[in-house]
Amino acid sequence: MLALVAAAAAGAVNAIAGGGTLLTFPAIVGLGVTPLVANATSSVALWPGSLGSMWGYRHELTGARHWVIGFAAPSLVGGGLGAWLLLHTPPAAFDRIVPFLVLGATVLFLVQGPLLRRLRGQSAGASARTMPDTRPRWSFVAAQFLVAVYGGYFGAGIGILMLAVLGFMGLTNIHLMNGLKNWGALCINAVAVTMFAGGGIVHWPIALTMAVGGMLGGYAGSRLAQRVGQAGVRHAIVAIGLTAFVWLLLRRPGGG
Hints:
The chain is an all-alpha fold. It has one domain. The protein has 10 helices and no strands.
């Protein structure tokens, strides 16, 4: 029941404000699953919901073929490398670093609001399909590769990282940027999920339960997104993330 409720909440907050991994990951660990397996299971559980997000933004990518291709290659390769690194990380080592991964993701989520407001402000004064170059520059490919490595390894907070990279590259249309972000996340997690499943580090009963909950929550969240204030949701997620950081820190061998 905890898995279903946490996933439904994660799907809903992803639709409203993002940050669902900060709900699912601690919940899975709370069910007695090791952090490394919980990380992989959370990625698998939330991946079906990313398909819906990508489908919803598909029209925003019209005319951005070069950017779609430019996003795919580093996302697939980097996501695969990140997943490979996770598969070769000793569980005890992951236990030691995961509190700081959660803290970093919480900080990223905290700065997401101000960054999005800035990007939306830029978008309001730009043409509807503004793109700085016909093709993405190599600096973008390199930056997206690094984001994808992190995404394949842990994943929480990759959305804001991708939006930041796109902003630095000169994109100003927030809808186009969200479409590219969702496409990048889909590519990263597709490779990671496949490798996690093949590597045998997925707790399938929890993953399947959460996948159902995530899709239901995502649908409900999309209906509520225009009615629910994002500020309260964001504050709650930040509080959960910070609490999870302290809890994970204290539960490590030696209590931190």
